[in-house]
Design a protein that fits this description.
With 97 residues, this protein is mostly helical. The chain has one domain. The chain contains three helices and no strands. The radius of gyration is 18 Å and the shape is flat.
Length: 97
């Protein structure tokens, strides 16, 4: 491997790492249904949507020009934001007490 190609690989790897690429992550159901039933329901729908996209990828032999994978990455971000919303609501409720 030449120095130039090694440098390019290193830069690309760092860019992917820093941009928060979420290829290995999956949305999860981790919001308490009793405390935040509506947010938990929304999160459940995100997890379900991810499952449908996975099925579509398999059905289409993953030949969707990367759009399905991008949608799945966005669902991971949505899932994280829902969790943060629940945590923010918890913190606000703690301050009121």
């Amino acid at each position: 491997m030449t120095k130039k190609s090694r440098l390019i690989n290193t830069i690309l790897s760092a860019a992917l790492f820093c941009s928060g690429v979420t290829l290995a992550q999956e949305p999860v159901q981790d919001i308490d249904k009793k405390t935040h039933p509506i947010l938990a329901a929304a999160q459940s729908h995100v997890v379900q949507a991810n499952s449908y996209i996975l099925a579509a990828q398999k059905d289409n032999k993953e030949d969707m020009q990367g759009h399905a994978e991008k949608a799945r990455q966005l669902l991971v971000q949505v899932n994280q934001e829902l969790k943060l919303a629940a945590e923010a609501a918890n913190a606000a409720n703690q301050k009121k007490k």
